[in-house]
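Practice problem: predict the structure.
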Amino acid sequence: MRTRAELQKDAAPTSLTDRIGAYVALTKPRIIELLLLTTVPVMFLAARDVPPLALVLATVVGGTLSAGSANVLNCVLDADIDTKMRRTARRPLPRHRVPPRNALIFGLVLGVISTVFLWILVNPLSAGLALAANVFYVVGYTMLLKRRTSQNIVWGGAAGCFPALIGWTAVTNELAWAPVVLFLVVFFWTPPHFWALAMRYREDYAAAGVPMLPSLVSSREVADQIVTYSWAMAATSLALWPVAGTGSFYPSAAIILGVVFLVEAYDLRSRARDTEELSVIKPMRLFHLSNAYLALLFVAAAADPFIG
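Answer:
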């Protein structure tokens, strides 16, 4: 429990730079970076060339505002549990750097601006998909699933899959099977990625009363699930080859990346077989690898038309 002096220090007036920094922190920039990493490469794949720079810039700005809106609203709704978790206790709302009412207004305004921005400068379909992702993350995941089921991140994580659709529709103004395959790759990637992180912070989730899978079952059971989803992810990634008609570069990269990911997933399960000691299990190895996997896979998809 934090002391009164610490709370007063956090709540004390700050400089304009600190205030701006607090509002930016509410948008969770590192998460936005990952989302954009699954948007821009898909635009290259859809164009089979370098897409117009103005379109890429508009999609990136609109997507950033939309994702930022969802993240801010998530911070508002989760402020009570963020104060109980080491990983989130330094966020602006637990530290009283931003009043909850101001954060709520900020999040809603970002959502409106992003939708109008994408509607005008990209196209209505991309704007609608971005808005749907925002609503699904805030209502579906944060409000309905997160505190009620251990499958929260499985279904709620679908919100993070929408950038693949948005990147494609920004270029083509229509949906197709190729972005749906990439949507599913991210869908199956999310549980291994997030459960590895949640294993590291399982005590936090237990203290906050959030039924994240690693806080409810043994590490071996979590690792078994991670292996299952890793296979589904690797197999789905190969489906882009026939569906999008890629050359040989993409499937070669997908196979290599999938094998590397699966080896680490099986190693994680092996380490978790007989112990709950995190220093032995080392779940963050898979977490960091998962970020590299997704980035390299989508870059391979973007590069394939040029290499082929």
